[in-house]
Design brief:
Radius of gyration: 32 Å
Strand order of the largest sheet: 8-11-14-18-17-16
Largest sheet: 6 strands, antiparallel
Distance between the termini: 116 Å
């Protein structure tokens, strides 16, 4: 009887006793935020550099790239004006993967992939600052561009390293409305396109350094070991209201021979551009119509 009473009392006390606290949770190793991995893989735009400007009033800005491509499943834009700063990470695809690059390695015609940092301006094209730009190995930039419409001249030509001169016509001032470049098989090309059907007179020759602005006389640094001057008379590169018809005055190209193109004059019906080339090779001039175009081809 006594044993039964003691056992009953023990069971009663055990049932009334407070439950033991659960075991303390074991510390877990910190997790890496998936957003970081996703951010490394994200690309805002992938395409060709079609325009490029160097420098800015802002000392933090190295330059700007106009990138044009196609909207792909992993991109957000098909065209954008990309600002490259001193903090932008620059890479080039190499044999061993990504290799560090410099802004000077960028050139018109290259294929690049850019990731943006911060807000994107709601303009067309959108404008943004790049956190990272990668120069891609693939792409059509290595292939020659399509020929200019109406061009039936042979790809192979003798050309000249001397002066080409055509007197100015007795005609109104021609307005330059576009300047474009292309890499062709065996030569680099610059096309000056004008409004209407009339070309101005022109004078081309290799000149010595320093290259100078026509108004101020200030020296203009232009890449290359030779400089081909193209003078157009009578011509202008602005509207009657004074707005430039060709906004890009300086272009860094990186073609086989043509390295840089820069406007040095738009004054009193004189327009002048200088082609900075790696070598003063022979060149030719073509006149095309519909619209009026002056084509300058410089051999590789």
């Amino acid at each position: 009887m006594t044993r039964t009473l003691i056992l009953t009392l023990a069971l009663t006390l055990a049932a009334c006793a407070p439950a033991a606290p659960p075991p303390a949770p074991q510390p877990q190793p910190p997790q890496t935020a998936p957003a970081a991995d996703q951010d490394e893989q994200r690309v805002d735009i992938r395409g060709a550099v079609t325009r490029m400007t160097q420098g800015s009033e802002d000392p933090e800005t190295l330059g700007r790239l106009l990138v044009e491509g196609e909207l792909e499943p992993d991109t957000h834009f098909d065209k954008a004006l990309v600002r490259v700063t001193k903090t932008t990470r620059l890479f080039r695809e190499g044999d061993r993967g990504r290799e560090p690059a410099r802004f000077a390695d960028l050139a018109v015609g290259q294929q690049v992939a850019a990731t943006f940092d911060g807000p994107v301006a709601k303009s067309y094209p959108p404008q943004a600052t790049a956190r990272e730009v990668v120069i891609l190995r693939r792409g059509p930039s290595e292939a020659p561009s399509a020929p200019e419409p109406g061009d039936t001249a042979p790809e192979s030509f003798e050309g000249t390293a001397g002066i080409i001169d055509k007197p100015e016509p007795d005609a109104p001032v021609a307005t330059l409305r576009d300047v474009r470049t292309a890499r062709q098989q065996g030569f680099d090309r610059v096309v000056f396109e004008f409004e209407g059907s009339q070309l101005p007179g022109y004078h081309l020759e290799y000149i010595d350094k320093p290259v100078r602005q026509c108004g101020s006389g200030e020296p203009v640094p232009i890449a290359g070991d030779a400089w081909l001057q193209v003078r157009l008379i009578p011509a202008q590169a602005h509207t009657e209201a004074g707005q430039p018809t060709v906004p890009e005055r300086e272009r860094h190209l990186g073609y086989p021979n043509l390295l840089e193109l820069e406007s040095i004059c738009d004054f009193e019906a004189h327009v002048e551009w200088v082609l900075g080339v790696a070598s003063p090779n022979r060149y030719r001039v073509l006149e095309l119509t519909n619209p009026a175009r002056l084509v300058v081809d410089v051999r590789h």
